[in-house]
Each structure stands twice: as C-alpha cells, then as structure tokens.
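Fold this: Alcohol dehydrogenase superfamily, zinc-type
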Amino acid sequence: MQKAWFYKEYGPKEVLQLGDCPIPIPQANELLVRVRAAALNPIDFKRRQRPIFPSDFPVVPGCDMAGIVVAKGSNVIKFDIGDEVYGNIQDFNAKGKLKQLGTLAEFIVIEETLVATKPKNLSFEEAASLPLAVQTAIQGFKTADFKEGGTVFIVGGGGGVGTLVIQLAKALFGASFVVATTSTPKVEFVKMLGADDVVDYTKTKYEQVEDKFDFLYDTIGDCKNSSVVAKEGAPIVEITWPPSHPRAVYSSLTVSGEELERLRPCLESGKLKPVIDPTGPYNFEDVIEAFAYLETGRARGKVVISGTLDQHYTTNSV
Ligand SMILES: NC(=O)c1ccc[n+]([C@@H]2O[C@H](COP(=O)([O-])OP(=O)(O)OC[C@H]3O[C@@H](n4cnc5c(N)ncnc54)[C@H](OP(=O)(O)O)[C@@H]3O)[C@@H](O)[C@H]2O)c1
C-alpha cells in the first residue's frame, strides 16, 4: 500500500483525506513512478467541488508530477528504471474518464508518451510545477496562430499559467512587445519575468491602455472587458470556459511528453524558468493548506507539493 490524498464525495477542501491506497500496477506501455513532487492546478479543486468529468470515487487529485521510474511495462522503450521524469498525467479514456489516479500520491502510473526526462538543472519541485501550465501556455499561442514579431497583451500575468505565458512570449514565440496585467504587489515580480510593461489592474482600466495588440491572451476569463486592447481582427484567446466574449476562442491544453521534451533547450538555457509560489513548496502532509491557498486565486506562479513521505519500495513489490 501507499499513502495518497483522496476524496469520496464532491465538496470543499475538507473532503480530502490522507490514507492508504493500493500501489497501481503499470500496464505494458506505462511507467510506475515514485512521485518526488507534485503541483496543484485550479482544475484539481474545480473537479473536487463538482462533477466536471465523470469520476469513480475515491478520486486521487493532481495532474502534475516529477519523480523517479521504479518499474515499467514490457512495451516501454524510452525510459528505464531510475530515470528522472516529469509530466501531466491528465489523460482520458474513450468514456471521458481520467485513465489514472492523480499525482497527490507516493506512486503513479503514466503512459510513457506523456512524460519527458526531467531537465538536469531543475529540481523535482521545479519540474513538477511545469507540465499542465506550460502545455496550456504553449497551446494558447498555437490556437492564436501567433506570428513572430507580434505584440502580446496578457491578462493575469502573475498566476500559474500567466507567469509562463509571459516568459514563452519572448523565449519561444518571438514576441516583440509583451504587456501583462496584475495587482500592485506583483508588479515588480511580473516585470522580472520579462514583461516590457505591466498594467496594475487595481489602478488602470483596459480602456486606459494606450496601445492595441496583435494578440490578447486572457488567462482569467475577463475578455468581456479586456477585448478592447486587441487590434481589430487580432486573435483573442481565453483558457477558461465558457468564453466571455464573442471574439474569444477557448484554448485547451494538449497533454504530451514530446512537447515537454521540445522545451528542454529553453529550460536548460534558463530562458524559461519555473516559478514556484513562495508560500511553498508545501509538505505532502499539508495538501489541504496548499489547496486553501490556491483557492484564494492569489497564487504567484505555481503551488507545489514536495513528496516527503519516507516509504521504502522495491520493484519486486509489483
Ligand atoms: N483551458 C485549459 O486547458 C486550462 C489549463 C490550465 C488552467 N486553466 C484555467 O485558467 C485559469 C488560470 O489558471 P492558473 O493556473 O493560472 O490559475 P492561478 O495560478 O490560480 O491564477 C492566479 C492568478 O490570477 C491573477 N488574477 C486574479 N484576478 C485577476 C485580475 N482581475 N486581473 C489580473 N490577474 C488576476 C492573480 O493575480 P493577482 O493576485 O495579482 O490578482 C493570481 O496571480 C483557471 O481558471 C484555470 O482553471 C485552463
């Protein structure tokens, strides 16, 4: 058995329990990974609060992880036992159900196509902070068919996705000018991530922004107001459902290990840096506290959990 966080009914964070769960057995194309760190995303608490996807209880929440391969199925070719990997395990079967239990556990199974080798310069916590948010951030640029040299206006530059959108705008997509919104305490932080200008939304309305932009990337679902900063005909992307403006196109992440592999040069060169909220990393035992913080909507980058339970495991156990 292993320790995992789970819930048996929908509800507030108090439905979460820490208890014993069986260690999953990897199928032919899957890895068994000892989780060393995990990250929380808003989907984890939205899914706990109400039935967004069909789920069988108990549900173990968590999509993101970084860890060490401890066993593998017979068809796995890219990874070996002992490899350090990271990925987003949010993958659905034909019935729309998540295939796997979540990452707030000591062990998870994951298809090898969903993970990538952890860049050597990143800690497990840094690597775990990336997959879901960075896959979302990248997909938004693809949905917009963003062209190098264009200008970008990012609504919500301080959050888990926004902090990566700012960095990727320059590092991967060649944006010429990047502006992001945030509240007063995060203005300097958002500038340090590479924004050329920062709009403090507590002081400045979108109508007061002088420029018009080639791409509006709204991470908080405020397009009914923010759309005024987009040039006529410019793409407007939202990542919250449903879109809040007739011109806004909803963009959803693509879960892929290859996408993470392609990011490796950017990560190893330091052009793209994981951003871990300074209240963390939280201990595995403090997951409820970590959720309480994320659910305030005020996170600064990613809320990360360290897998610190000391359980000994050998590959003979599966
Ligand atoms: N479609 C997809 O595939 C996909 C994938 C990932 C996430 N999402 C969704 O996208 C949303 C953002 O995700 P996330 O992980 O970035 O969430 P998050 O980390 O919880 O975002 C928190 C950030 O939002 C900022 N914020 C809140 N109100 C704001 C406002 N009025 N103007 C500017 N910034 C504001 C906060 O900054 P301040 O404290 O400065 O206000 C905070 O830094 C969530 O709803 C999530 O469910 C969708």
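The chain is about 20% helix and 25% strand. The first strand starts at residue 2 and ends at 6.
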